[in-house]
Write a structure and sequence with these properties.
There is one protein chain. 4% of the residues lie in helices and 48% in strands. The protein is built from one helix and eleven strands; from the N terminus they run βββββββββαββ. The protein is mainly beta. Strands 2, 4, 5, 6, 9, 10 and 11 form a seven-stranded mixed sheet that branches.
């Protein structure tokens, strides 16, 4: 049974840092793409970042490029999202999600699948609030 559990959310000041973790079970990270998505109040869920469990290929949304860093630890079945210099507009519920890594994605890039509709397994989410 595929399971994803997020942790590490909380209150962080603008310009600070926060690291979210996604613990996965029921599957081998090597064969999956893990995505981070977020949903702010009154807004649709949007992609933040994706990473290939196979080779570490990454994609970042323009709004977080240069501030957030996604990484994986296959041995620990865990994916992290380091949030540096967060802004109030980063306030949202953050979700991690998983989808099988297919051949096409391996040939091209995780960017091609880093959208909500491409992911079938989701965690429950963790709240991140950026405020003074």
């Amino acid at each position: 049974q595929v399971q994803l559990v997020e942790s590490g959310g909380g209150l962080v000041q603008p310009g600070g840092s926060l690291t979210l973790s996604c613990a996965v079970s029921g599957f081998t990270l090597d064969y999956y793409v893990i995505g981070w998505f977020r949903q702010a109040p009154g807004k649709e869920r949007e992609e933040v970042s994706c990473i290939s469990g196979r080779d570490g290929d990454t994609y970042y949304a323009g709004s977080v490029q240069g501030r957030f860093t996604v990484s994986r630890d296959n041995a620990k079945s865990s994916v992290s999202l380091q949030m540096n210099s967060p802004k109030p507009e980063d306030t949202a519920v953050y979700y991690c999600a998983a989808r099988l890594l297919d051949l096409q994605t391996m040939i091209t890039s995780v960017q091609t699948v880093c959208v909500e509709s491409q992911f079938s397994s989701w965690g429950q989410g963790t709240q991140v609030t950026v405020s003074t």
